[in-house]
Amino acid sequence: MKKIxxxxxxxxxxxxxxxxxxxxxxxxxxxxxDLHDNVMPELKETGPFEVLDAxxxxxxYDLVKKYNIDTIFNLVAVLSAKGEANPQLSWKINMDCVFNxxxxxxxxxxxxxxxxxxxxFGPTTPPDHTPQDTVMxxxxxxxxSKVAAELLGDYYYLKYGVDARGLRYPGIISNVTLxxxxxxxYAVEIYYEAIKNKNFMCNLSPGTYLDMMYMPDxxxxxxxxxxxxxxxxxxxxxxxxxxxxxxxxxxATAIRKHIPEFRIDYDVDPIKQAIANSWPNSMDDSAARKExxxxxxxxxxxxxxxxxEKLTVKLQK
Length: 317
Description:
By secondary structure, this protein is an alpha/beta fold. The protein contains twelve helices and 14 strands. The protein has two domains: about 5-170 and about 215-240, Rossmann fold (3-Layer(aba) Sandwich), CATH 3.40.50.720; about 175-210 and about 245-280 and about 300-315, UDP-galactose 4-epimerase, domain 1, CATH 3.90.25. The longest helix has 22 residues, at about 85-110.
């Protein structure tokens, strides 16, 4: 990668991936874009920023040519729970953006990174140590669009030679940006509430296991995959990656090691619970480990310690 375009840069992943990429490749070589210019100042102050509707293929193409882009990070997505409120719009956004990124990269001989998700799996998928290659019959429009995007990426690679790659991310936990409508959001919100109020009302039931990952690992995984020797890749769209699997009681126990008085209560959201029940308890990421030497650095305990340390400082400002 030499010159990078990030679409959806103001989202949960993009707001941290942009500075991460700029630190690696140089600020002038990473162009951040989002639908509006009301974004974190860092996105505009530390490197090039452009307003872009990623559903407008011509506008995206013009930016690719303007900055001589060779790699697009497509981070635009309407997430699982939010997507169910307007499935028609969610499908259009999720699919138009990935299609535009792939089609432009076909024309420019560029590369594309598009994250997929545990949401691409469904209730008939093996729930424990979910294999890399398995049944994928999701029951949300978000999951359906992610499966379609995976297949489309493979198609553009096989048909046109586009260097399309991706990861099936688990829930991502960040101390910088709040999540935006996903089923795993509770695993971020719980830390804020633990520090502020010593109590959290969880919308998923105890015993609901889901794969999770700390943001530093998520960022490293994206770069490691895109830098991997293509000759080592058997899979491309998309690799299972994971770091930990836990339920709400486990994360509450980890928090009590730092905040002993913390209490968790439950008010289950039936929509989010149904979505979570359709997803794997844990994924097998051995293909990523074998093909490009993936290894997560954070587990539940080390992530919790870092989250509480960072958020305590953040919330005191």
